[in-house]
Amino acid sequence: MSHLHYDHAGGMIHALGDKTELSFPDAEYVINRGEWETAFSSTSSSYHTDIFEFLQRNAQLKFIEGDGNLDETIAFEFTGAHCPNHQVFLLTEGSSKVFFWRRCFA
Ligand SMILES: [Zn+2]
Hints:
alpha+beta, Metallo-beta-lactamase, Chain A, 3 helices, binds zinc ion
């Protein structure tokens, strides 16, 4: 996750009838540790802690900080742009590279 504002984090879970489910049950949710802490301590309406509490109980979470690599094909970089703990990802497959970043357009 680049960050946890609702327009991004809202898709991590979904309602199915009267149940809430993970949208990607087999995924590892990779989240910046500072962004996770901000999500719980902020008074901003952009953070919906009910989503994060559900994730904490039901999802496989991986917290990262700074810059680094998840594996040989996925790198991440802390930007601190759009929000104080924003991060971006660079995906590499062979000679192809994809830069993944998101911000809110609200
Ligand atoms: Zn945002």
